[in-house]
Write a structure and sequence with these properties.
Length: 264
């Protein structure tokens, strides 16, 4: 039986987030939180593997208490077990501190054959977590997986198609293996009413810095985070475009040439 872990993050819907011009920080208050979209693709890949080979899919997140909602969404979409790592001591964590806490918690809850991550989060978007987690799990890493072709549990080998600069690459890796997933072939399923209802009351395992054994406090939260973000800048919008409507294609082209000539 495969033991599969999916790392998920609850993110603010960035389409609705604004930046406070005075402080340069994100205004998150009142912005709805959603499951990071690429994590939903990773979960779908994990659930399809479970359905094909049998196993257990656990989802884990480090975040505030409200992140439990993202876990419930995953339970509705096929996850079997949900783990929330939440503690004020984890706040202001960068990727190094986050991957440390997730790896220590995973060590406590069981060994995993396959670990899935989204390629990047919608908000932080560093794309660093997968490689850091693979290192901490001492796992192989297959990034940009388009399709998992086979999982050989006995020989501990996973075979997958990866998106490659100019095409597709078939690659095999030794398990444990961490994969990030392309969304093309793993569209998140829409939960049926029964599984959605069950997810509302399903248990969520909660751990804090006190209940994860052996956590080094110097490696968690703010003290464990060498990355500091002093300020965030909004995108500056350039001048708007101009429509050319001179009445015919030839006149449009002539006008365009005039405008370009003015710029030279
Ligand atoms: C109390 C608390 C407050 C936090 N506040 C913030 C905050 O204000 N802003 C913020 O951006 N982050 C916050 N975090 C989360 C944490 O700091 C980031 O998740 C971490 O730095 C990852 O950075 P990223 O989003 O760039 O990762 P990326 O490398 O872009 O993410 C890639 C993938 O890694 C996995 N992943 C990323 N983050 C997590 C996570 N937390 N749990 C499980 N899997 C994950 C997902 O699969 C994701 O798709 C907070 C955490 C806690 C406990």
């Amino acid at each position: 039986m495969l033991n599969i872990l999916v790392c998920v993050k609850q993110v603010p819907d960035v389409n609705l987030v604004k930046i406070d011009p005075a402080t340069g920080s994100l205004i998150r208050a009142g912005v709805p939180a959603i499951l990071n979209p690429l994590d939903a693709n990773a979960l779908e890949a994990a659930v399809q593997i479970k359905e094909r080979y049998s196993g257990t899919v656990s989802v884990i997140t480090m975040g505030p208490d409200q992140a439990a909602e993202a876990l419930r969404e995953c339970l509705a979409a096929g996850a079997d077990r949900a783990i929330l790592l939440s503690d004020r001591a984890f706040a202001n964590a960068d990727t190094l501190a986050t991957s440390y806490v997730i790896a220590k918690a995973a060590e406590m809850i069981g060994g995993f054959d396959l670990i899935f991550c989204g390629k990047e989060s919608l908000d932080g978007a560093t794309g660093q977590m997968a490689s850091q987690l693979a290192e901490r799990f001492d796992a192989s890493l297959l990034s940009s997986v388009k399709r998992v072709l086979s999982v050989n549990e006995r020989e501990k080998v996973v075979m997958a198609e990866r998106e490659y600069t100019n095409g597709t690459q078939t690659a095999s890796a030794i398990m444990p293996c961490l994969m990030t997933v392309e969304k093309t072939n793993y569209h998140p399923r829409i939960p049926n009413l029964k599984s959605w209802k069950a997810s509302r009351t399903a248990p969520i395992e909660r751990y804090t810095s006190e209940t994860i054994p052996g956590l080094d406090r110097a490696q968690i939260g703010d003290p464990g985070s060498p990355t500091k973000v002093p300020r965030t800048y909004p995108l500056e919008k350039g001048p708007g475009g101009k429509m050319i409507r001179e009445g015919s294609a030839a006149k449009d082209a002539a006008k365009l040439l005039d405008l370009v000539a003015d710029l030279i």
